[in-house]
Amino acid sequence: MTVLVGYASAHGSTREIAERIAARLAERGVEAETASLDAVGDAGGYDAYVLGSAVHGMAWLPEATGFVHTHRGLLAGRPVWIFSVGMPAALRGPWKPMAPKEEPKVTEEVLADLSPRDHAMFSGVVAPEHLPGAGRAVFRAMGLRYGDYRDWEAIDAFADTVAGSLHPAPDSP
């Protein structure tokens, strides 16, 4: 069984998460390949898919939604998991309760074409150079914090769930 861990990344954080998921799958005996979704050659050459995207403007990046839309027939017949990389962990104060409300909006367009087995929302990295000047001003005015908010334990747990579904542990005596 070969799994595509495909991603759309703007600044590299989502790519690094995808690479971590693929490495964790390999540690669990599942063959996995990592590729940018706009560079996947033969999408039909995989038995299962873990697809992820950075979240900008409360939506997946266009190359990720485009991949899902283009290959929806293929993906419908195979196991698929998805993950999104946004900034819920950067939210503070009155903005923090908004984090759980982000997921349905983020996945809305993707779920129109896809019925994944699971979705995980991870926080990524946000740095001043990732935002335009006006974006930095709004970010500061909202009291948000720059930083690397990736929760590697949660990412590993997600990958372990995928691996367990694809390569179940043998029954113990």
From TrEMBL:
* UniProt GO MF annotations: FMN binding
- Span of domain Flavodoxin-like: 3-147
Q: Which Gene3D superfamilies match?
A: 3.40.50.360
**Record-linked PROSITE patterns:** FLAVODOXIN_LIKE (PS50902)
Q: What is this protein called?
A: Menaquinone-dependent protoporphyrinogen oxidase
Species assigned in the record: Streptomyces radiopugnans
Q: What is the lineage of its organism?
A: Bacteria, Bacillati, Actinomycetota, Actinomycetes, Kitasatosporales
